[in-house]
Design brief:
Length: 280
C-alpha cells in the first residue's frame, strides 16, 4: 500500500484544503500520515475531527521537515508500506494525481518519481524537473526546453525536491532516511535524491501527474521579499534560508567528488548571495 507522508505546522487552512484534495482522488487505496509538529492554530484538532482516516502523529515543535518526514516514514514501514510519497500541505492534488503517479511507478518500480507542479493562481507550469551540473551547481530546467506538446509522460532528471516524490519503500533500506542532522529543513530532499542517483537509481518528473502549489508560501521566498540586513543574514545562514551556505558546503562535501568542489562552491556561494537581491 502507498503511504503519503506530510509534516505540518500552523497552516490549518492549507492543510485542510490539501487533505480534501486527497479525499477526492480517483485512486483510494492509500493512507495519509500527518506529523503535526506542535501547531498552535488548531491544525491538530481540525484533522482529528474532520479526517478520521488520517494517521496523526504529534511532534513537540522541534522536528523540522526532515526529521518529521522520517518519523512518518518509520510509521509507514511499521505498517508494511510498499511505496512512500512525500507531499507538502501547501499543495492541491489534481483529482487523478495519485492514479497517474502509480501508473508510472508500476512501470518503473525502482525509480523515484516527482510530480509536475502548477501555479495555483494562474494554472501555469512552475516546476517540471531539473538536471544539475555538478561543476557549476546550476541546473537546466526542463520547462525551459520542453515544448508544451512534449510535456507529457515521464522525463529523466538527476535530482528532485520532496514535494510529490514517490519511491519504493525498499529504497529506504538501500540509501537510508532523509539526513535530518545535516539538513533539518531545506536541502534534505535534494540530498536524498542525489544519494539515490549516485547509487544508480533513476529519477523522473511525471508530467501526467499534477499538483498545484502556492509559490510564495515557502519560508525561503518570504525572506527574499522583504529586503533588510536581518533577512539577508537569515537567507544565508538560518534554518529557513533557501541560500543557506552551510548546507551548500555540507551537500558538496557529502555528495560530490572532490574535483567538483572548487567550482561548485565558488559559483554556488556567489549565486546564493546574488539571489537575495533579485525581485520577488
Amino acid at each position: 500500500m502507498l503511504f503519503i507522508i506530510t509534516p505540518v505546522f500552523n497552516r490549518k487552512s492549507f492543510t485542510e484544503k490539501y487533505l480534501l484534495s486527497l479525499q477526492k482522488q480517483t485512486y483510494s487505496n492509500f493512507k495519509v500520515i500527518i506529523i503535526d509538529d506542535g501547531s498552535t492554530d488548531g491544525t491538530y484538532e481540525m484533522i482529528s475531527e474532520k479526517f478520521k482516516d488520517v494517521i496523526l502523529i504529534k511532534g513537540d515543535g522541534n522536528l523540522w521537515w526532515a526529521e518529521a518526514t522520517n518519523i512518518g516514514i518509520k510509521k509507514a514501514l511499521e505498517l508494511k508500506a510498499s511505496s512512500i510519497m512525500t507531499l507538502n500541505d501547501d499543495t492541491i492534488a489534481e483529482i487523478n494525481y495519485i492514479e497517474k503517479m502509480l501508473y508510472w511507478h508500476n512501470k518503473h518500480p525502482n525509480a523515484l518519481l516527482g510530480a509536475f507542479a502548477m501555479n495555483i493562481e494562474n494554472k501555469s507550469p512552475c516546476y517540471g524537473g531539473q538536471i544539475r551540473n555538478n561543476w557549476t551547481g546550476k541546473s537546466k530546467y526542463l520547462l525551459d526546453t520542453l515544448k508544451k506538446e512534449n510535456q507529457t509522460g515521464i522525463h529523466e532528471v538527476n535530482v528532485f525536491p520532496g514535494r510529490g516524490l514517490l519511491f519504493s519503500s525498499d529504497l529506504i533500506k538501500k540509501i537510508g532516511m532523509f539526513d535530518h542532522k545535516n539538513f533539518p529543513q531545506m536541502v534534505a530532499d535534494m540530498d536524498f535524491t542525489t544519494r539515490a542517483f549516485n547509487q544508480g537509481y533513476k529519477i523522473f518528473c511525471n508530467y501526467d501527474a499534477k499538483i498545484y502549489t502556492y509559490p510564495g508560501e515557502s519560508a525561503g521566498i518570504k525572506l527574499l521579499k522583504e529586503k533588510n540586513i536581518k533577512n539577508f543574514y537569515n537567507h544565508l545562514f538560518s534554518i529557513k534560508g533557501s541560500g543557506n551556505l552551510i548546507w551548500l558546503y555540507k551537500f558538496a562535501f557529502k555528495n560530490l567528488r572532490f574535483y567538483y568542489w572548487p567550482s561548485f562552491l565558488v559559483i554556488g556561494t556567489i549565486s546564493k548571495i546574488l539571489t537575495y537581491f533579485k525581485k520577488y
